[in-house]
Design a protein that fits this description.
A hairpin with a 5-residue loop joins strand 7 (128-132) and strand 8. The protein is elongated and about 65 Å long. By secondary structure, it is an alpha+beta fold. It has helices spanning 10-36, 85-88, 90-101, 159-162, and strands at residues 42-48, 56-61, 65-69, 76-81, 106-110, 118-122, 128-132, 138-143, 146-150. A 5-stranded antiparallel sheet has the order 5-6-7-8-9. Strands 1-2-3-4 form a 4-stranded antiparallel sheet, with helices on one face.
C-alpha cells in the first residue's frame, strides 16, 4: 500500500478513470447543449463599441463561430472560429472575455442515468462547464471553442478525494 492508501498504480488508475468520466460527462453536456441552442444557433450577442469606430454587432454561434456584423444592415464584417479569435481579432476576443466573465450565456439541467442532477453551461467563449447541482462541484470543463474536448490540465479529483478514509 502507498501513503495514499491505494495500491501502487491505483492512484493513476483512479485519476485516469475520473478523467474518462469527466470527458464522457462533457461530451453528453455538449450534445445536450447543441440540441438546446435555438434553430439559428445563437449562443449570445453583444454590441462592441470602440472609440473612434462604428459599433459592431458580435454574434456567437454554436458550434463556436463568431460573426461580426454591421448593425442595421447585417453585413458580415468577419467570420472567425473562436479558437482563432485571439490571433485574428484580438479586440473581439477581449470583448468576449469580458462577456464570459459576466456568467454563462446558456444553461440547462441534465439528469444522467445513475448519477446526480447536473447543470451544464456555455459562455461567450464557448466553454462548456458541468457542475453537480447539489454540491456545486465542477465535474468537467471544455477548452475554449472546443465544447467536447476536456480542458488540458483539468483535474476531476482533488487530493482530498484520493486521501485514505477511516471507516
Amino acid at each position: 500500500m502507498s501513503a495514499h492508501g491505494l495500491e501502487p498504480g491505483g492512484m493513476e488508475k483512479a485519476i485516469s478513470a475520473a478523467r474518462d468520466s469527466a470527458q464522457q460527462c462533457l461530451q453528453a453536456a455538449a450534445a445536450a447543449m447543441a440540441s438546446k441552442v435555438s434553430a439559428d444557433g445563437a449562443i449570445c450577442s453583444g454590441l462592441l463599441r470602440k472609440p473612434g469606430c462604428k459599433p459592431v454587432s458580435v454574434l456567437v454561434l454554436w458550434p463556436c463561430w463568431v460573426l461580426e456584423l454591421e448593425p442595421g444592415t447585417g453585413t458580415i464584417i468577419a467570420e472567425t472560429h473562436i479558437a482563432e479569435l485571439q490571433a485574428k481579432r484580438p479586440d473581439t476576443a477581449a470583448f468576449l472575455q469580458r462577456m464570459a466573465e459576466g456568467g454563462p450565456a446558456k444553461s440547462m439541467f441534465l439528469h444522467p442515468a445513475q448519477s446526480r442532477r447536473q447543470r451544464a453551461t456555455v459562455d461567450a467563449q464557448c466553454v462548456v462547464r458541468v457542475h453537480d447541482t447539489k454540491t456545486g462541484e465542477l465535474r468537467a470543463e471544455s477548452e475554449p471553442g472546443q465544447p467536447g474536448v476536456l480542458r488540458a490540465g483539468f483535474e476531476p479529483l482533488t487530493p482530498a478525494d484520493l486521501a485514505p478514509r477511516l471507516t
